[in-house]
Fold this protein.
Amino acid sequence: MSGAVQSIIRWVPESKGGRRLVPGDAAYSTVARFEDDERWPHEAWSLVVRVQRTYRDGRVTLAKVEFLVDQAPERLLGAGSRFELLEGTRRVAKGVVLSTSATVPEDLSEFEAELIG
């Protein structure tokens, strides 16, 4: 697997077509669509998500993410990269990769959560 990076992920509520439960301690893997991936949907990559901290009633998480396979294009996990997590055709979350120098707050305001997507 590739090197893990920190991301903030906002999970879509079940009432809007998302997951009923946000992944907990166990690793979660699913297909990701990256905004900057011009090869989508001809090439698709899966991410492994490991939740580290939850915010906003658990609908926003700080997580380590990495590609499931080593052959994935690492450039897609650069700081500021935006992605969606998909289960089939259903979008279950949106996320952004943080820079290595980012200071992660103990809590997120609604405004900060909205910036994720």
In short: The chain has one helix and six strands. The longest strand covers residues 45-55. The longest helix spans residues 110-116.
